[in-house]
Amino acid sequence: MHLYNLTLQPPTAILQAIVGNFSGARQQEIIVSHGTRIELLRPDPQSGKVSTVIATDVFGSVRSLAAFRLTGGSKDYAIVGSDSGRVVILDYDPKTSSFVKLHQETFGKSGARRIVPGQYLATDPKGRSMMIASMEKSKLVYILNRDAAANLTISSPLEAHKSNAIIHHIVGVDVGFENPMYAALEVDYSESDQDPTGEAFNRTEKMLTYYELDLGLNHVVRKWSEPTDPRANLLVQVPGGQLASSDRYDGPSGVLVCCEDHIIYRHMNSPQHRVPIPRRKHPLEDPNRGVIITTAVMHKMKGAFFFLLQSEDGDLFKVTIEHQEQDVTALKIKYFDTVPVASSLCILKSGFLFVASEFGNHYLYQFLKLGDDDDEPEFSSTNYPGDGMRDPSSPLPREYFKPRPLENLALADEMESLDPIIDSKVLNILPNSDTPQIFAACGRGARSTLRTLRHGLEVEESVSSELPGIPNAVWTTKRTESDPYDSYIILSFVNGTLVLSIGETIEEVQDTGFLSSSPTIAVQQIGADALLQVHPHGIRHVLSDRRVNEWRVPEGKTIVTATTNKRQVVVALSSAELVYFELDLDGQLNEYQDRKAMGSTVLALSIGEVPEGRQRTPYLAVGCEDQTVRIISLDPESTLETLSLQALTAPPSSICIADMLDASINKSHPTMFVNIGLQNGVLLRTVLDPMNGQLTDTRTRFLGTRPIKLVRVQVQKSPAILALSSRSWVNYTHQNLMHFTPLIYDNLDYAWSFSAELSPEGLIGIAGNLLRIFVIPKLGTKLKEDVIPLSYTPRKFVTHPENNYFYLIEGDHRTLGQDAAQNKLKELKQAGKRIDEEVINLPPDIFGRPKAPAGTWAANVRVIDPIEGKTIAVVPMDGNEGVFSIAVVPFSARNNELHLVVGTAADTTVSPRTCTQGYLRTYKFVDDGKGLELMHKTELDDVPLALLAFQGKLIAGVGKSLRLYDIGKKKLLRKVENKAFTSAIVTLETQGSRIIVGDMQESIQYVVYKAPENRLLTFADDTQPRWVTASTMVDYNTVAAGDRFGNIFVNRLDDKISDQVDDDPTGAGILHEKSILMGAPHKTNMLCHFHVGDLITSIHKVSLVAGGREVLLYTGLHGTIGILMPFVSKEDVDFISTLEQHMRTEQPSLVGRDQLAWRGYYVPIKAVVDGDLCETYARLSAQKQSAIAGELDRTVGEVLKKLEQMRVTSSGF
Amino acid sequence: MSSELRYTANTQLEHLHARYTGTGHADLSKYEWLTHQHRDTLASIVGHPTLASYLAIAENEAIGRIKFEMTERMLQPCGPPPRKDDD
């Protein structure tokens, strides 16, 4: 087996975000790291929307990012710390719209190791140096400068190592133009490692250490080291240094040390200031729990600065420092607003706050005010004795605030993110859909969602109005060339034409010069200020003064089809003749003296737009009934000569020539594409060679069951093509590459561009007797998401085999259940406490739920109707039970009646895995599955992590044991048990009497159930330890599984062993066979192995295209959706593998990681081709493309076509 | 092997041990080995974003909290060292 890996949806989690002027323009941009991918985002200050400029796979893991700018520079660079053992400086080049690697300095081994730097990055605020540090010991300082040609230079590294020191955080200290200084939060473990009494451990102090880079001596010295709070976790830079123009200090310099419950201001040789982190005044809060700051951002404005610190609950605090020159007089903190917990915060100069959520959607907020004059209580260090530092070892009195809805911020934009995907299903259950949908259970806590993902672009409809009849075509047109918007909508009916004028309202008009008694074939705004209507009996040229010049068709003939642009008109007559008109300089339409006889009825015609600065477009495409397409010259020297001919497989129904940019073919100029829609629903896309009119590079695609109609439109200011069949598709250019995506919208019969004041970028379409105006708001997103909110983190879900409902289990650790919370509140009320109802009723999806101690659980079983997109019922769990597994089981002892079994456990702690009691809750479906009725609960001794229906019974993985249960009256009855598993059973799959068990640490094991002897026997396992998270059976002997470290692998059992095991009626043979390597008697072979880079949460074997081959679809925790597609022929494997080899040398990773080493992070890559790498072929320079294609004995077009075909046939994307 | 050579080999080895924290040697005690293993694992959890997210979801804590607690635990992941019996 050989597989081709293709990412359909790259990870959407943002692990870090940095802000800067990366393109060197005025506008600020954001670079975000998705772990294995970096993306440049551009927030538009006018509209407040964020758009992606470029996203690139780095084939490595990005661990840290920092922006920096050389002194006096106007452009920011990005420094990337990764697992490559190298530090990389990236420059965004706006001309080519790509990241350019300026420097790559190697310092250690690859991999995210303890002592190899890459985890932490800090830069000098004046852009003179940077520090890169590891988790322990290593810190390297690089000096950055510019050479005579103003190029960025980097020095060799200077070491600032400290052995036996664990590093918590580093930050650059702002010291102005004095020697660059870095602050590090370190703990030395050498003494506590030597002291058996544990005293040294208790005495260990967390040190705040300053490292100074002496630029004169080229040396790093430890300048200052002082103990600080033992629970400090984060450092924040405080502005400092003098302005060049005046003697004023920017700020006091130093750092904010964020600790559990406190913030401390610290600097060398200056007094400390400490304030408490205010806590939420929530009656259910756990008083024993501290609050830490997880992210912080500092913002400098003219002569002032402030900090926004975010606590782990999502509350933002505004921290200000009052200072006189370099002396701090007060440190102040106040509650600002509450936003989702972020992995990074970025403040933009245009007044926006970008919140990269650690889980779920990301947000852009606009600052309404800075919380300056409100009545929110402010806590100042001066209110505490000794500025809060009289007794640093004891905490300050607790201060409280009341959380409230947003006051200082307003939501401007939202970026959808699937992160984390915890479980998924791929099914086709939505009506009128020929491709399956992906249902993904996403999110964490109260922001969890179940999302329906459909391949296609979202459409926003603004108008849908009924028409008197059923039109067969629609056009819009301006009145003159210089009009900004369209003036008329023209509708063609079988026996007439209706003209509507677009104004404040849309109403019918009569005196436009258009012929209304006959259907229309084409409409065009022609010349400077004239209009043109083509109808079956002639062409009407309506001049600006309403005079009409009409060209009439010779008697006995009609016009069957026509094509027009600003200067040219071609019509085809029923006698299979072409008539060509061109506008002369006086605005007169002149017929060319000859007519061209085609010999076969013309079905479709197309000419492109007139190129800028030209008189005419030189090519005409003609589709004839004899299944051919001819390219005919319109050049004055060879007018109406046939240049080339292409045979088709079916008669054409529509042709469309369009000039569109596709960087894989031509980086700088649009390519002229001839799109040919056939009557059998197949679209051919060919490239028209502008030199000789030959058609090359044909790609085909099946669009639907109806004859295709093609329309050239404008989408987001660039040309696009709408292809209408039984589904509507749009072909457009996004980030310089061509995309072909279906619209998630009703079928359209005809469509055209629509531009009016209210919707300048719209489209107009007709469907039956409905006229519709719509826009395509977001290009580039290939999956449309529909969201059903959930209340807790989803764990797993199953489908009902008959009614399509989903049964989803959701549960949160450290959260009080609804009932438990109510009871506690009641107790508090009875104890006479006053309870603030406002705080209790805050929406949990924004504010979260109060954290309870470990071992507290809130959980539900939720019944969802995925077609309607709503929750039908919620069944809460009682008794502090968490939910872990679910299965629908037809018990044969009950006539195969379906039951829902839910595996729960009370008072569970996650690490180590313990519970006071596990349960299997058996539910009966009531009301056609709309409700659940608890039949009984079966006690267990461990947590049931996996359940599966098996031969009319239930197979359960309960901790380390695999058990078979049958249904009884009062509980489930244990029939047989196998306790030979090492850690815990997490996945179960079955075919026949074989059960595939995924162990939490010990990979996949094959188990057989021998009914005659009632035995569950393990007969095969794996030779490698694998921390399995998801698995699926590919066939009876083969299993594909994913593990916790981001690997995906396929294991296969030998056919002979499989037969031998199946032929053994009692299993005695297996029982007495000698075990190998202290495991099962047989071992599986690993067929394929691939490192995806995201933690695999589910795998399915599905077919994504109607009638297509089955592929393995997987989802990853950070929002990745990818497929593994089997190759069909040896030639394909050879071809694509060779291409991959070339790509490895031609496309080095942006972070300096070796692609082969990355894809073989834990185990060498085996029999899988990295399609993501291969697809970057389209972005290579034309020179490199043709060099590689030459090595492969193909043309560039053939290589691109093969890559596209691999993608389209397997996924349809 | 000449004594000189052995001498240089040892200093090299010592140098390597000083340079690569966590490298084992012949006289490594069980406690030291285990502590190294745990520190490596904890550093790996902080260093691999997916693992940190995974733990954060399981524990229902913020990722920042998980990273902080993991880093804290690196100080003494396996308790105090065993008493040395010097008799």
TrEMBL record, chain A:
Pfam families to which the protein is assigned, alphabetical: Beta-prop_RSE1_1st, Beta-prop_RSE1_2nd, CPSF_A
InterPro entries: Beta-prop_RSE1/DDB1/CPSF1_1st, Beta-prop_RSE1/DDB1/CPSF1_2nd, Quino_amine_DH_bsu, RSE1/DDB1/CFT1, RSE1/DDB1/CPSF1_C, WD40/YVTN_repeat-like_dom_sf, WD40_repeat_dom_sf
Positions of the RSE1/DDB1/CPSF1 C-terminal domain: 859-1178
Any one of the GO BP annotations: mRNA processing
Signal peptide, first to last residue: none
Coiled-coil features, chain-numbered ranges: none
GO MF: nucleic acid binding
Start and end residues of each RSE1/DDB1/CPSF1 second beta-propeller domain: 460-776
Organism domain of life: Eukaryota
Gene Ontology terms: cellular component: spliceosomal complex
Places the protein is found: Nucleus
Chief subcellular location: nucleus
Key word Lyase present: no
Residue ranges annotated for the RSE1/DDB1/CPSF1 first beta-propeller domain, each copy included: 14-380
Keyword terms: mRNA processing, mRNA splicing, Nucleus, Spliceosome
PANTHER family: DNA REPAIR/RNA PROCESSING CPSF FAMILY (PTHR10644)
Function: Involved in pre-mRNA splicing and cell cycle control.
Subunit and interaction comment: Associated with the spliceosome.
Family assignment from sequence similarity: Belongs to the RSE1 family.
Protein name: Pre-mRNA-splicing factor RSE1
Protein species of origin: Ephemerocybe angulata
Automatic annotation (TrEMBL), chain B:
Signal peptide residue numbers: none
Record GO biological process: mRNA splicing, via spliceosome
Highest taxon of the lineage: Eukaryota
Family matches, as Pfam families: SF3b10 (PF07189)
InterPro entries reported in the protein's UniProt record: SF3b5/RDS3-10, Splicing_factor_3B_subunit_5
GO CC, alphabetical: precatalytic spliceosome; U2 snRNP
Homology family: Belongs to the SF3B5 family.
Identification of the protein by name: Splicing factor subunit
Species assigned in the record: Ephemerocybe angulata
Lineage: Eukaryota, Fungi, Dikarya, Basidiomycota, Agaricomycotina
